[in-house]
# Entry
Amino acid sequence: MKPKLACADFTFPLLEHGGSLDLIAMLGFDGADIGLFEGRSHLWPSREFQSVARSARQLKRKLSDRGLEPADVFLQLDSDFAKFAINHPQATRRSKARDGFLRTLDYAAECGAPHVTTLPGIAFDQRRRDGSWGRCCEELAWRVEHATDRGLIFGVEAHVGSIAPTPEDALRLVHDVPGLTLTLDYTHFARIGMPDRRVEPLVAYASHFHVRGATKGRLQASFKDNVIDYRRAIKAMKRTGYRGYLGVEYVWIDWEHCNEVDTLSETILFRDFLRSAWKTN
# Structure
């Protein structure tokens, strides 16, 4: 069985959204990962949520016209990870995050996306993480329940600066929140020098997968400089029965040196690599 390949619609931010989707389709991808990132993607929650059903139907039509499927809808309510973190100490902030999540579920269901991703929250008190962790688990369990009720898969991306910055933290999270899955991105661990063998146990809990190059000190790197053994990751996926998309997720933003690679060329290199590696592993 060939892999289902997706490309992030936010990989090409200098194009209009339709142009980005045109390019993704022209490159032969099966699906698009949709970014709902306030202030820094084509589609902003504040705009899309003014009329969830209408906006989602428009997106569905744009994708369908290009022969693309919506692979994932990734919600970020603010570029500041803390402002509306799901486990924010302020109840009003958590309520805002919950409302945004429910709207995202409606949006995903309406446009036909099977999967929704959010960030897992952050550690607000570095000296005592128990409070942050407990709120995080409570909020994630609530999200798992509501996503399941709508027939959607919900995953979180353990990332640089999150409450789960290591593979062990991410593993603890999925153990503490029954039904939670991961949108797994090795690059956040490669950036801090962690070997693939420490990340590999997370593959069994992955429902969506992000692919790009990375190396120690660089969250995003070229195919040539990449240190992640994606052949090994593919073997782990096949061993654990992974059935989700492989989403090539290069970004072009002025953060973590992510505007220092050619996103188009690197996307093509990883597309071709994934097709070949899936066949031969």
